[in-house]
Fold each of these.
Amino acid sequence: MNDVNRHKKIMDTISGVSILAFPVMLLVGFLLHPDIVSFEIVHTPEQLVRNFRGNTIWHVGHLIVAFAIPFIIFAVMHFMHILREKGLWYGIVGGVAGIFGSVALGLDKGSLCLILSGFDTLPDEQFVGLIPYLQVIIDKAGLLVVNWLFLLIPIGVIIQTIGLIKEKYIRRWQGIVIIIGLLLLINPDIEIISTVGAVFMIAGFYPLGIKILKRSGGS
C-alpha cells in the first residue's frame, strides 16, 4: 500500500469514527442533564444553581459535549471533501458554518462547564454572594453573546446533508432523519428535545459512518 492510499484509509477511519461518535457523545451529554424531562427554561441564577451546584454529573455531561467538538469538525470536513459536484457549495458553505459553530460551542461549554465547575468548588459562604452575578451567563451578556453562534453547527450540517442527498451519497430517508434531528438541536434550552434530536442523528448517521469505515478497512 502506497503512502497516499494509507493516508486516505487513515483519514476515512477518523471520519467514520467521528460521524458515529459525535451524535452519541451529544446524546450522553444530554442524558446526564438533571430533570431531563422538564420543559422548564433556565431564566434565573437560582434555577441555574439548582442544576449545577454539587452536581458533578451535570459538569461531566457538558464536558462530554465539549469533547465531541473535534469529532464534529472532522465530520464536517469530511463532508466538505466528498461533496464535489452538485453538492460542492453545500459542502463548502455548510462546512464553514459547522466549523465556526464548533468553535462557538467550545466557548459555550467553557463558560458552562469549566467556569461553573470552578465556582462549584467555592464554600457556601462565598458561593452565595456570587449567585446574582450568574445572570450574565444566563443572558450571555457582553461577548458571551458569541456563544449563540453554536447554532451554526446544526444549520451547517443541514446544508451539507442536503448536498449529500443531491449527490446520492446518502439515501433520502437518511437525510430526512438527520435533518429532523438537527432541527431539534436548534432548540438548546429544553434537554428532552435535544435528546430526541441526538437519537434521530444517530439513526441517520449510523449507516454512513459504517459505510465509510468499511471502505477504509477499519471495520
Note: The CA atoms of residues 45 and 135 lie 5 Å apart.
Amino acid sequence: MRAPQQNSDFSRTVDQLADDPNPYEPEVGSMPQNDLTRADLDNVNKTGTTTIGISTADGVVIATDMRASLGGRFVSNKNVQKVEQIHPTAALTLVGSVGGAQSFIGSLRAEVNLYEARRGENLSIDALATLAGNFARGGPFFAIHPILGGVDEDGSHVYSIDPAGGVMEDDYTVTGSGMQLAYGHLEQSYEDDMSNEEAKTVAARGIKSAVERDTGSGNGVFLCEITEEGVDIHGHHDFDEVL
C-alpha cells in the first residue's frame, strides 16, 4: 500500500483523526459569537413596543401595538403582528429585536409540536413557560422580553419572560418601552374575574395610553383572545373599533 503523500488531503485527514480520541462521536458545534457594536444595535429592527397580558375568568387576553422601528428613531413598519400562536391554547408576544423574537417563537413552536408528536398530548403552560425561560437564558436570542399567555387544565396563565430567562406569573403583566404608561391604566382598571370581553377593552385602552406618549409604540392594536377552544388574533388600526 502506498504511503500518503506529504500535505495531501488524505494525509491531513489522517493527522486530524489522530488527534481525535473517538472519531465516531458526533461533532459538537459552538454558538456564534455576538460581535455587534453599539452602532450595529442602533440599526437593528426593534419592536419598541407595548405588550399586555391579562388572565381572566374565561382565559387570557393579550394586546400589542403594531409598530417596528430602527433604533427607536425611524418607523420601519406600521403593521407588525407582535403576538403569535405557539401552542394550541397559548400565544407569545414579540418584544425587543425582531429577528431574535421571530427565532425564539419558531424554536418554541417546534418544541411544542415535537412534544405533542412524541407524547400524544399538549405541553402544559407551566412547562412551556419553563422551556421559554431556559431558551431565553441559554440561547442566541438577542434582546427579548416577551409575554406568554395560555390556558390548560389548571386554568389561565400569564407569564413575563425576562432577557435573562426569569419566568414570573401574574394576573396581568406589561412589557416593552411603553410599559409604565400601560401599567398606570391597568392598575386602575384591572378587576379579578373579568371576562375576556372586558379584558380586551382594558388591554386596548392600555395600549392606546402608551401609543399617545411612547415613540416606540403606535399604529394600532393586535388583540389575542385565548380560551380552552384555541387562539384568536385580530389587528385593528383604529382604536374606535375596539373601544
Note: The chain has one domain: 45-241.
